[in-house]
Specification:
Number of helices of chain A: 6
Oligomer: heterohexamer
Chains: A mainly alpha (about 160), B mainly alpha (about 500), C mainly alpha (about 140), D mainly alpha (about 950), E mainly alpha (about 90), F mainly alpha (about 130)
Main location (chain B): membrane
Number of strands of chain C: 0
Order of helices and strands of chain A: HHHHEHEEH
Number of strands of chain A: 3
Radius of gyration of chain C: 22 Å
Subcellular location (chain B): Cell membrane; Membrane
Radius of gyration of chain A: 20 Å
Distance between the termini of chain A: 24 Å
Shape of chain C: elongated
Largest sheet of chain A: 3 strands, antiparallel
Bound molecules: sodium ion
Helix content of chain C: over 70%
Order of helices and strands of chain C: HHHHH
Keywords (chain B): Cell membrane, Membrane, Transmembrane, Transmembrane helix
Family (chain B): Belongs to the CPA3 antiporters (TC 2.A.63) subunit D family.
Protein name (chain B): Monovalent cation/H+ antiporter subunit D
Chain lengths: ~160, ~500, ~140, ~950, ~90, ~130
């Protein structure tokens, strides 16, 4: 029953918050409208999506986000050095990362994370969704790289997207 | 009934939208009934508008209840009513012809047809220059649809030419409009008339360019030399019923020319009085002659018909550029009848095309003799188009010639008479070849198998057009009375401006 | 307080500008596509994020109040940038002569992406084949 | 009465046309009824006409234009009407027997009646415009009659030639008549005739005379436009007898007679008309002698006689006019009978070639007798009617004009005419009926049915009666006709066979003797049968008409061959001319006094640089289409940022969104187009185009700059700003303009958008499209991006609703919102594939467009319920319990329509384009 | 402080403008199609920065929607163009 | 600033016209797009150049022209943009069909070197 009214609770919440943020207002009217949209949007989206993402442990999202933000800032500085320095010192290369994540939403999230972290970039998902092709701007040790990614990002994401 | 002036625009638009809604689920018969109901209502509205305009008043309908300078005003005067009625009368046989089968083969035909009418009527009724542009575009895009829906092969190429040329012209229109607003600060045509007359001397040259560009656009749409090259192939390739309706399209350019000319270049226009009349006159005459030359050289009947459209456009250019009450009245008499006759020729050409099998409408001998009715239809049409008596084409031309100012007699007489002669030569040749000549040894090999049969409805549509021509020939007096009054109205732009300014909103502040 | 916020704003602005510029600079400076793409897709995104944050702060102090909705822009940006980067890399991969073959094969040297020079050469070859060009 | 008279033939024509399936006899009776009844009516009116009273009837047609169906019956009209009807009746009788089984009697008699009516109209017309109307009708109906045997090439050609030449004359006549109307102020005949002095004094007189005479000369086959008449002999003989001897060709000289009081009396008239008449007279007669075709001989002799009549009217003395009118009558009688006789010969012998005929008096004595008498009348032998008018002509020729040299010349021409006339009459008689022969005829000749001879006999009897008893038979008729022609100026005269020995008589005798001598001498000397003279007029006509057709074809084909490029080229040239013309030769400078320009912000320069560079790069890379598309994307982006910088956020948004959709559109198209443009290898054209483009660019830039540096004053928008919030309840003035002030523009604009979608749909729905290059392998999967955009969609939809609701007060509105949701859906199409999207997202876009349009219309029409004009916005503040105050503007309904149309339209376009290949493949699999 | 702030904002606009010019260079130079797509994408991102800075400078919020739309949908061009490069048929 | 806008418009027009005259379908489409940018900017320019004063009314700022940019040209440009898009869609589809039906990328549906039919003789057997 609930599932029919709110086919995706995460999405409903997102929309609700999103609307309030956009409207910058918390008057009763806005709240009613936000609630209405929170109900409506997933209904419409349901006609387009194959499946909604199921969220496992949502509470680790926040620390993950913070960690990510930090990584982004730090890595950006690294990349700034790399970019500004001489290019021939770089050791770029492609790496296939084996995946343990099977949930496509999880894979997507991992891809985003890898891409957003400077120095790495996902270029392709293998057809069987078991490997991710990552391009690294500077890679000394591929194995180390793979380990780091799996441990730092894939593991928590597996908990979020079981 | 104050809203009547809205009807010719909104009625077909709503009809079109409803037909669009119906088309997926319903039979073509339902669509046809809907289209005919819409058209019947439109006809009633058009007739009522003419009757109302004939009262002599000029009415401004303030859309959104804003004063005309702020909002958009629809204007009803004799000229716009006449154009709306002409369009509607032309639409009836065109739709009749299309209902013989083309409407099944062209997706969205009925909706596009109605929207085309809405666009045409909007262009005739609006009193705002930018809104005129918008309705030009409505009309054009619907015409692209009518031309291209169900089209294949060469017709697509012709459509390409038409579309690209018109887009280029529309771009120019926009440039001119931008400059116009930038220089004069208004878009209402009546308001602009006042501002044009009051242009500061140092701005005159710039405004001249602006208005000149605007005229170029109108001339391009009306197919004035040297911007007529898009017309022959397009019209000749269009589906017959569509070509018949297209005949009015060049007249929209002419209408705009006449309207803006009367308002902006009339006797109250100060430095712009008589602007561009000389070049228009010369080019009009040249268009007429080249059009008739095209008739002579045409290898296909439909090409000849297209050139005849060109010729009549040239004639109208001359009539309007002369800017005499008599010539304008004559031109306005000539305009509807030339539309009807040219439309009829397109239909006849299509009938001929199917009755002649392989040869189509090419001016070539075949073994197939054509029925007498087709020949008769062709003859009456040709007479009206060439301007031979006793049909209305003759009446229009003679009225115009009779009113030519003394100084212009030589060239105008020469060009009108010479083009008529050339057209006569051309049409008598194609007529005698198409209808008289049969090749004995092809008698058995030629057949009309595979050609859709010519139905009674198609004959009726053609006959209806000719009936309109004949009616205008037998009873020219009331029409001329109306067009004379129209010309007088056009030559008194001050009244128009006063009327527009005097119309105040119903509830808003003026 | 105002001063602190202003200083934070200025800092964010400077950092943001730096990263935006850095992204574009990488685009120009680096020698191949897979090098270049690292710059704009990340540095620029971060830079814009900083500028947006600066804007929020600035507005809260000097403008009409706190408008956190500007952060939504960052959210969208962070949502869409990876998609864009991923697709561009896919595009570049699809034009590569030697693509990283099967999974698990470790690193691969970078291949050559079909560029303008290749296309010119192709066109010349085609023209030679046709014998003449007409247009 | 006159109307009835005029209507008779037309009614008959109509009756014949309607009488489908009627027997030939019935048709003939119908056709005969018209002239017979007409003659009866005319007879009934005769006493009044003879008494000098003029009947007049006017039916209003176009009073404002001076065109009225004015008819009158004076002496001249009466005479001609009698001629038309009388000979017409005989022709019907003759034709009934003449026509073959396979000829369509209905068509023939129908056209004949049409012609008869037209001719009656010409002679009865009181209004010159009406005369022109019927004049052209005679041309048209004669076209149909000449071309009656449609299978014959000479018939078709003859018909066309006749129509061309006489049509040309008719148009010239129209011009002349219009000029007369200008001078006189009326087209009514009595006003025109009374205004003769004014016409002759007018500066337009030469033009009037030239144009009217062009009409006269073409219709009456005067040199040098005579050649159509022999060509018209391809017509059935009754037609030749009727049109080409008795009536139509007489219309020209009739008009000369008609307008004589108005036009004649000047030296110009005198010399032109007499000279043309004289030359025609001689040339016609000379050529007649050498014709082998019986009808050709008669045709040329007709030309000659028409020349004679013209000459007589040119001489302009009252007696010359009398002679002219008299000769019209005489010629009609003997020539019609001769044509009918020729027809009988043709009919019975199967040939009209004089070289194969001869000695026919043995086979058809009655016919021979009749024809010989008629020929003698033609030769002007005493006791026959031809003699009388010829004598009058000689008498007038001897006194022609004021210059003796001219008089001598005319007299010699008259004498030569006598000689030639006898010669060709003799040739007709001798080569057909006397001498040896006939040779190699397909059939044995014999007398025709007696009813075919009766008309000939009647006409010959008339010739004799007039010739012997002129005073009794013809004098009253002639007097009546002349009185109608000349009015007050009509002379007193009496006709008699014997005038005593005088110079004209001597000339007659000399002519007869000379003719005899000439014929027999010539026969010996030149072997007449071998001589065949080329008629240069006809030859020139053919050459020139062919040239005209070819030239017209070549010209139009060549002009039209340039395609779009030429179309656009000319438009640009015109624009350049129009744009530069106001500055040429004028002091006015484009720029005026330059005020200080505004300072440019740094961002401006960046935008400018990127815009210009990407535009130029687009041009540079235009051959590589993908590259050009990417580069042009930057141009679009810069335009939209420029809008943002220059205080137009709505524009920036719209431009951005439209840009995205446009890119998608073009990429989809590029799949079906070549990846590269072929480059023109002609540097000339490239440089020319570049030059034109630069000129155009500089021109527009100059105009824009000139406009920008002028300070605007009095723009209406100031008032819009002031009234936007209080009266339209919107703070975003641009949006208020779009949905309120100028909502009608938006209404049109969404219609354009909707129709564009329909056009795309209509063009691709059933099209068979094949990508230019088919990519191998299965469709690519892009699971990661697809997955990421799932999150985007609900948020984008929320943003879209936000933009829509806020539009009236902040940037946004229906259009922007519509695109803001169309684009994410489109992303889904791209990343997930059309199949996946459409399988779940069941939205009928066409219907959506329809609903959107109807919503917009409803939003506009709502105000009509309150008696207010279309699109008048209303505004309510709803006070709801929990929610509080909710301001609602009725423009929202209209804007919803916009929203729906834009969404549905954009997706109809893109989904149709995106899925066209899938449909094609499906269709191919099905086939 | 306001003056300094405005100065810095203007300076930031210049720097971002320079970034746009650098992207332009790559856009025109290429040499590969993905390079150009990347350059266009970078232009879009830089545009967001410019628009936001403009809003800061003018102290207005009307540019919010523009920045939002570019951030939300600006990558659409990249998506379509890349899809075309990957596979000419952009909607399969 | 005026000069920059005017010259930008000029460059767009020149480039647009040049591409329009190339007569290849896609070039023509590009040309029309550039021209439409130019016209939009030109119409926009008719309201003159104003930085930082969008016509969105703000409280306490008097609604007069001195405080806001001219909104009318902006509304006109919006209409023009939409119409230009609609037209572009149609041209694009016509170009596609042109290429599909006639196998030609030329705007005239055939390559220009092909002369029009050899002459009237082939179509008209002579009457003379
Ligand atoms: Na596709
Ligand atoms: Na555009």
């Amino acid at each position: 029953m609930i599932a029919r009214i709110f086919p995706s609770v995460p999405q409903s919440i997102t929309v609700f918050v999103f609307w309030l943020l956009m409207a910058e207002d918390a008057s009763p009217g806005t709240l009613v409208l936000a609630a209405f949209l929170a109900w409506l949007m997933p209904q419409i989206a349901a006609r387009l999506e194959r499946e909604f993402a199921r969220i496992g442990e949502a509470r680790i999202l926040l620390p993950l986000g913070a960690k990510l933000l930090w990584d982004v800032v730090v890595a950006n500085i690294t990349v700034a050095r790399q970019v500004l320095g001489p290019e021939d010192r770089l050791k770029p290369g492609f790496i296939w990362i084996p995946l343990e994540l099977t949930n496509i939403h999880g894979i997507s999230a991992l891809t985003s994370v890898i891409t957003l972290t400077p120095g790495t970039l996902t270029a392709e998902l293998s057809a069987d969704r078991s490997h991710l092709l990552v391009h690294c701007l500077h890679v000394e040790d591929p194995e180390q790289m793979i380990r780091e990614i799996k441990q730092r990002y894939e593991a928590p994401l597996r908990r979020v997207f079981p | 009934m104050q809203h009547l002036v809205l009807a010719p625009i909104v009625l077909p638009l709503v009809t079109g939208a409803i037909l669009l809604m119906l088309e997926r689920r319903h039979d073509v018969r339902v669509l046809r009934s809907g289209a005919w109901i819409g058209l019947a209502l439109l006809l009633a509205a058009a007739v009522a508008l003419v009757a109302r305009a004939d009262g002599g008043g000029i009415e401004a309908y303030l859309l959104g209840d804003w004063p005309s300078r702020l909002g958009i005003a629809l204007m009803l005067d004799r000229l716009s009513a006449l154009m709306v009625l002409t369009t509607t009368l032309l639409a009836i046989p065109a739709l009749l012809y299309a209902c013989a089968g083309w409407d099944r083969r062209a997706l969205h035909f009925h909706a596009l047809f109605q929207i085309q009418l809405a666009g045409l009527n909007g262009a005739f009724l609006t009193g705002d220059i930018f809104n005129l542009f918008v309705f030009f575009e409505v009309m054009l895009i619907a015409s692209y649809g009518l031309l291209l829906s169900g089209a294949r092969g060469e017709r697509i190429a012709a459509g390409m030419h038409y579309v690209v040329f018109n887009i280029a012209a529309s771009t120019l229109f926009l440039i001119a409009l931008g400059l116009l607003y930038g220089m004069l600060g208004s878009l209402n045509m009546a308001e602009l008339a006042v501002r044009v007359a009051a242009v500061a001397p140092e701005d005159v040259a710039l405004v001249r360019v602006t208005l000149g560009l605007l005229l170029v656009v109108f001339c391009a749409k009306a197919a004035l030399l040297p911007m007529y090259l898009w017309l022959p192939e397009t019209y000749a390739r269009a589906p017959a019923a569509v070509a018949a309706l297209f005949v009015i399209m060049t007249k929209v350019g002419l209408y705009a020319l006449l309207r803006t000319g009367s308002l902006w270049f009339g006797d109250m226009a100060g430095p712009f009085e008589g602007f561009a009349r000389g070049p228009l006159l010369v080019l009009g005459m040249a268009t007429m002659l080249l059009g008739s030359l095209g008739v002579v050289g045409a290898l296909r009947l439909r090409i000849a018909a297209a050139y005849l459209v060109l010729m009549s456009a040239g004639t109208l250019f001359v009539a309007f550029a002369l800017a005499q009450p008599g010539t304008i009245a004559a031109g306005l008499y000539y305009l509807p009848q030339s539309c009807f006759a040219a439309a009829a020729l397109f239909l006849v050409a299509h009938i001929v095309q199917r009755q002649r099998g392989r040869a189509g409408d090419r001016v070539l001998p075949t073994g197939l003799a054509l029925p007498l009715q087709t020949g008769l239809l062709f003859m009456v049409t040709a007479l009206a188009l060439v301007g031979l008596p006793p049909l209305s084409g003759f009446i229009g031309k003679f009225l115009m010639l009779a009113a030519v100012p003394a100084g212009d007699i030589g060239w105008v007489y020469f060009s009108v008479l010479a083009s008529s002669l050339l057209a006569l030569v051309g049409l008598s040749r194609s007529g005698s070849r198409l209808f008289w000549r049969t090749v004995e040894d092809q008698r058995d090999t030629d057949s009309v198998d595979g050609q859709p049969r010519v139905t009674r409805m198609e004959f009726a549509a053609t006959a209806l057009l000719l009936a309109l021509v004949v009616a205008m020939s037998v009873f020219p007096a009331p029409v001329l009375r109306y067009t004379t009054a129209t010309a007088e109205q056009l030559l008194a732009p001050a009244d128009y401006v006063r009327e527009v300014r005097a119309t105040t909103p119903q509830v808003r502040a003026p | 307080m105002r001063l602190a916020v202003d200083i934070a704003t200025l800092f964010l602005l400077v950092v943001g500008c730096f990263f935006v510029f850095l992204g574009s600079f990488a685009l120009v400076k680096l020698s191949s596509f897979f090098h270049r793409i690292h710059g704009p897709t990340k540095a620029s995104t971060l830079g814009v994020g900083c500028i947006l944050a600066a804007s929020v702060l600035h507005r809260a102090i000097h403008g009409t109040g706190l408008h956190p909705r500007e952060l939504l822009i960052t959210v969208f940006l962070f949502l869409t940038a990876p998609v864009a980067a991923h697709l561009m890399s896919r595009a570049a991969l699809s034009l590569m002569d030697r693509r990283p073959e099967a999974p698990c094969s470790g690193t691969e040297p970078e291949g050559h992406i079909r560029d303008d020079a290749d296309e010119r050469a192709e066109q010349q070859a085609r023209e030679r084949a046709e014998g003449r060009d007409d247009g | 009465m006159l109307l009835l008279l005029l209507a008779l033939p037309f009614v008959a024509a109509l009756a014949i046309a309607m009488a489908r399936g009627a027997s030939r006899r019935t048709v003939a009776w119908l056709a005969a009824a018209a002239p017979v009844l007409g003659l009866g009516m005319l007879g009934w009116l005769t006493p009044a006409v003879m008494a000098g009273s003029e009947l007049r009837e006017i039916v209003s047609w176009l009073p404002q234009g001076g065109l009225a169906l004015g008819l009158h019956l004076d002496g001249l009209a009466w005479m001609f009407a009698g001629l038309v009807l009388g000979i017409g009746a005989l022709i019907v009788l003759y034709a009934h027997y003449y026509l073959a089984e396979e000829d369509s009697a209905r068509r023939f008699f129908g056209c004949l009646m049409l012609f008869m009516g037209a001719m009656l109209g010409v002679v009865l017309a009181h209004n010159l415009l009406v005369l022109v109307v019927f004049w052209e009708l005679t041309s048209i109906s004669s076209f149909l009659l000449i071309g009656f045997w449609t299978g014959r090439q000479d018939a078709r050609q003859g018909a066309r030639m006749a129509l061309t030449i006489t049509g040309m004359g008719g148009l010239a006549l129209l011009g002349g008549v219009l000029l007369i109307g200008r001078v006189v102020g009326s087209y009514e005949l009595d006003a025109v005739l009374a205004g003769g002095d004014a016409i002759r004094a007018s500066a337009l007189y030469p033009a009037i005379l030239g144009l009217v005479l062009a009409g006269v000369f073409t219709k009456s086959a005067q040199f040098p436009l005579h050649f159509w008449l022999p060509q018209a002999m391809a017509a059935p003989t009754p037609v030749s007898a009727y049109l080409h001897s008795a009536t139509m060709v007489k219309a020209g000289v009739f008009l000369l007679a008609r307008l004589h009081p108005a036009l004649a009396g000047t030296d110009l008239f005198f010399y032109v008309v007499t000279t043309v008449g004289a030359v025609t007279l001689l040339i016609g007669a000379w050529y007649a002698i050498f014709q082998h075709d019986l009808k050709g001989l008669l045709a040329y002799s007709t030309i000659s006689h028409l020349g004679l009549i013209t000459l007589l009217f040119g001489l302009s003395t009252p007696m010359a006019v009398v002679a002219g009118v008299f000769h019209i009558l005489n010629h009609a009688t003997f020539k019609a009978s001769l044509f009918m006789a020729a027809g009988i010969i043709d009919h019975e012998c199967g040939t009209r070639d004089l070289r194969r005929l001869g000695n026919l008096r043995k086979y058809m004595p009655y016919t021979a007798a009749l024809a010989i008498v008629a020929s003698l009348a033609m030769a002007g032998i005493p006791l026959l009617n031809g003699f009388l008018s010829k004598e009058m002509f000689f008498a007038e020729a001897l006194e022609a004009g004021e210059q003796s040299a001219f008089r001598v010349a005319i007299s010699i021409a008259a004498l030569l005419y006598g000689v030639f006339g006898v010669a060709y009459s003799l040739r007709f008689v001798h080569d057909a009926f006397l001498g040896r022969g006939p040779r190699a005829l397909p059939v044995e000749p014999h007398e025709p049915p007696v009813w075919m001879q009766v008309p000939v006999a009647i006409l010959v009897a008339l010739c004799l009666a007039v010739g012997i008893l002129p005073g009794l038979v013809i004098e009253p008729v002639l007097k009546t006709a002349v009185a109608g022609t000349l009015g007050e100026a009509a002379p007193e005269f009496s006709l008699a066979v014997w005038h005593g020995w005088n110079l004209p008589l001597v000339m007659s005798i000399a002519g007869v003797l000379g003719g005899l001598l000439f014929y027999f001498a010539l026969r010996r000397l030149f072997a007449l049968h071998d001589a065949m003279l080329r008629t240069w007029g006809r030859h020139l006509y053919h050459v020139n008409v062919e040239k005209l057709f070819n030239a017209a074809w070549a010209f139009t084909a060549r002009v039209a061959a340039g395609g779009i490029r030429r179309s656009l080229f000319w438009m640009i040239v015109v624009v350049l001319v129009v744009g530069s013309a106001p500055f040429i030769g004028q002091e006015a400078s484009l720029l005026g006094d330059l005020p200080a320009p505004q300072p440019m912000p740094a961002l401006g320069w960046v935008l400018w640089a990127v815009l210009v560079a990407s535009t130029l790069a687009t041009v540079a890379w235009h051959g590589k289409r993908l590259t050009a598309l990417i580069v042009i994307g930057a141009t679009g982006l810069m335009v939209s940022v420029a809008f943002a910088m220059l205080s137009a956020p709505d524009l920036a948004l719209t431009q951005l969104l439209v840009e995205m959709v446009t890119i998608a559109l073009m990429m989809m198209a590029l799949n079906y187009l070549p990846k590269q443009s072929k480059q023109a290898r002609t540097p000339f054209r490239r440089w020319r185009d570049a030059l034109i483009s630069i000129v155009a660019g500089v021109g527009v830039a100059g105009l824009a700059y000139a406009m920008l540096v002028r300070t605007p004053d009095g723009a209406v928008s100031a008032e819009m700003l002031a009234r936007s919030l209080p009266e339209a309840y919107g703070a975003n003035v641009v949006n208020v303009i779009l949905v309120d002030f100028r909502g009608f523009d938006t209404f049109g604009e969404i219609t354009v958008f909707a129709v564009a979608a329909l056009v795309v749909h209509a063009m691709l729905r059933f099209a068979r499209m094949r990508p230019d290059e088919v990519m191998p392998g299965p469709p690519v999967q892009l699971p990661i991006p697809a997955d990421l955009t799932q999150l985007l969609f609900p948020l984008a939809l929320t943003v879209s609703i936000y933009l829509f609701l806020r539009g009236h007060n902040a940037p946004g509105g229906g259009f922007i919102a519509g695109l803001a949701i169309a684009v994410p859906v489109l992303i889904k199409y791209v990343l997930q594939g059309a199949r996946a999207v459409e399988a779940t997202f069941g939205f009928d876009y066409v219907r959506g467009i329809s609903i959107g349009l109807l919503l917009a219309a409803a939003g506009g029409l709502g105000s009509l319920l309150f008696g207010l004009p279309f699109l008048t916005s209303g505004h309510v503040d709803l006070h709801l319990p929990v929610i509080g105050s909710l301001p609602l503007a009725s423009a929202l309904v209209f804007d919803t329509g916009v929203y729906v149309v834009v969404f549905a339209g954009a997706l109809l376009i893109l989904s149709t384009m995106g899925t066209v290949r899938r449909r094609t493949l499906a269709a191919e699999e099905a086939a | 402080m306001i003056d300094l702030m405005n100065l810095v904002i203007s300076g930031a606009m210049v720097v971002v403008g320079c970034a746009m010019l650098l992207a332009l260079w790559r856009l025109v130079r290429g040499p590969t199609a993905p390079d150009r797509i990347l350059a266009l994408d970078t232009l879009y991102v830089a545009t967001i920065a410019e628009v936001v800075l403009l809003g800061m400078l003018d102290e207005t919020e009307v540019y919010f929607e523009i920045a939002l739309i570019i951030a939300m949908l600006g990558f659409f061009g990249t998506v379509v163009l890349s899809k075309y490069v990957i596979r000419r048929d952009i909607v399969e | 600033m005026e000069f920059a806008l005017a010259s930008g418009i000029g460059v767009l027009v020149a480039a647009g016209v040049y591409l329009l005259l190339r007569a290849r379908t896609f070039d023509v489409i590009l040309g029309l797009t550039l021209l439409s940018y130019a016209t939009n900017l030109l119409i926009f320019a008719s309201g003159r150049m104003v930085v930082g004063k969008p016509p969105v009314l703000r409280a306490l700022v008097e609604p007069v022209r001195a405080n806001y940019a001219d909104p009318l040209p902006q509304a006109l440009v919006l209409t023009a943009i939409v119409i230009a898009f609609a037209m572009t869609a149609v041209v694009v589809v016509v170009a596609m069909r042109n290429h599909a039906d006639l196998r030609s990328d030329h705007v005239d549906g055939r390559e220009p070197e092909r002369k029009p039919d050899a002459g009237p003789e082939d179509e008209r057997s002579r009457d003379a």
